[in-house]
Specification:
Layout: H1 10-31, H2 41-55, H3 63-82, H4 89-99, H5 113-116, H6 118-137, H7 142-152, E1 156-163, E2 166-173, H8 180-191, H9 198-212, H10 217-235, H11 241-264, H12 270-288, H13 292-295, E3 303-305, E4 310-312, H14 318-326, H15 330-346, H16 351-366, H17 376-396
Antiparallel strand pairs: 1-2, 3-4
Helix pairs in contact: 1-2, 1-6, 3-4, 3-15, 6-9, 8-9, 8-10, 8-16, 10-11, 10-16, 14-15, 15-16, 15-17
Length: 400
């Protein structure tokens, strides 16, 4: 991102400042998703948006996507007002605020977010790696770190959890899923013999190690899934792939599926019981109020869940939550998030694009059981997907 003296021109300076601001926004979103430590999310976002308005020409073709997100929230909210449902505006405003970074889609063609995300992801992973090792070596530090990072700032999640009878100490940032694009990139670089470098191997080690103790089943399994995908993408056309690699990959896939099923059906895992409790509550709610499937209950509406045995604003079942809040308008949100998959699929012959296709698809699956869409983390994934869509389209159609 540094500018050489010979390259100090007005356009390059504008691009450098814009990239620096976007890099800062990504870093803040990753390290402080709850905005409780740095308190800079709003400031950096406003600075970046203002900079883009002044110095870049907007891509109005992205306006319908932004409008779709706004309409998907606004229309069900108006219906809820007409139906005189008791929804607190203080619960609605954060939803609009959560999607506000989508306005950056207007200028996303000016930024390569896959490239800009590398440094923030490595930095955040390194911090978590150091904290994890400090706690392992000096267990007495767990209490103070937990008090600040998990209780006061609500940024880092820490717990001792059991997986298939094995107790593990886990800690992770709430934004962990947003690391996956960069993880896939470094996997691709390191698995490809002609692209592999020492720096890339070190970066991969830092990020991959973080995922191994990242707390949730999905976070710990996703790097192995992505490693298999990248291996297939890179070596699928190799002459000996069908003889050696494909059988090995198939065996790994079977073991991976067995592990997922075992983890998902583990009866002693508290989170599983809670999620199943939510399911019965959704079923009961839609049976009692079938119109919610069409018009939604309204954004910010609460409902009683057997999972927590109390009224809740939202649960981990993201897609069911979208239907409950927005009804059929939820299809607009889902459509905006799923749109990049079409472009990725179109250019899947490229190994990196194929790998990122499955990375983004994995995110959309994981987001189904975690509140990771209408948030700063979801916006980073969305913006990165659209940014790469612009990059790969430009490469294949340079004159368009």
């Amino acid at each position: 991102m540094l500018i050489k003296s010979a390259d100090i021109t007005y356009p390059n300076t504008i691009r450098f400042v814009g990239n620096a601001l976007f890099l800062m926004l990504i870093l803040v979103f990753l390290l402080d998703p709850a905005n409780t430590i740095l308190h800079k999310k709003d400031v950096v976002f406003i600075l970046l948006t203002g900079f883009c308005i002044v110095f870049y020409k907007p891509d109005l073709s992205k306006l319908p996507y932004i409008g779709a997100l706004v309409a998907a929230i606004l229309i069900p909210y108006l219906f809820s007002l007409i139906a005189m449902r008791n929804i607190d505006p203080d619960d609605v405003i954060p939803i609009f605020k959560a999607i506000s970074p989508s306005i950056l889609l207007l200028w996303i063609r000016e930024f390569d977010l896959l490239k800009l995300s590398r440094m923030p992801v490595i930095f955040a992973s390194l911090i978590m790696d150091i904290l994890f090792l400090v706690i392992l070596i000096f267990p007495e530090t767990e209490g103070p770190i937990y008090l600040f990072a998990a209780i006061e700032s609500e940024t880092v999640q820490m717990a001792h959890r059991w997986f298939l009878g094995i107790q593990m100490f886990c800690m992770y940032l709430r934004s962990t899923i947003a690391f996956t694009f960069v993880l896939t990139y470094f996997l691709y670089i390191c698995i490809s013999k002609d692209k592999r470098t020492i720096k890339a191997l070190i970066a991969l080690a830092i990020v991959f190690f973080y995922f191994t103790f990242a707390g949730t089943r999905s976070s710990m399994l996703v790097p192995w899934f992505l490693a298999g995908i990248v291996c297939y993408a890179v070596y699928r056309n190799h002459p000996r792939a069908k003889m050696f690699f494909y059988p090995l990959l198939a065996a790994g896939a079977v073991l991976f599926i067995i592990l997922i099923v075992a983890l998902a059906t583990e009866t002693e895992e508290v989170s599983n019981a809670v999620k199943y409790g939510h399911i019965t509550s959704y079923t009961s709610l839609f049976e009692q109020h079938p119109l919610y499937l069409i018009f939604g209950q309204g954004p910010g509406a609460w409902f009683y869940s057997d999972g927590f045995n109390k009224y809740v604003l939202q649960t981990e079942w993201t897609y069911l939550e979208l239907i409950r809040w927005f009804g059929l308008c939820s299809l607009l949100i889902i459509g905006v998030f799923f749109r990049p998959l079409l472009t990725f699929w179109k250019y899947r012959s490229d190994a990196l694009t194929f790998s990122l296709l499955w990375t983004y698809a994995a995110y959309l699956v994981i987001a189904g059981t975690n509140p990771l869409m209408l948030s700063s983390t979801g916006m980073i994934m969305l913006l990165t997907a659209y940014s790469y869509q612009e990059q790969i389209t430009r490469v294949n159609h340079p004159n368009s």
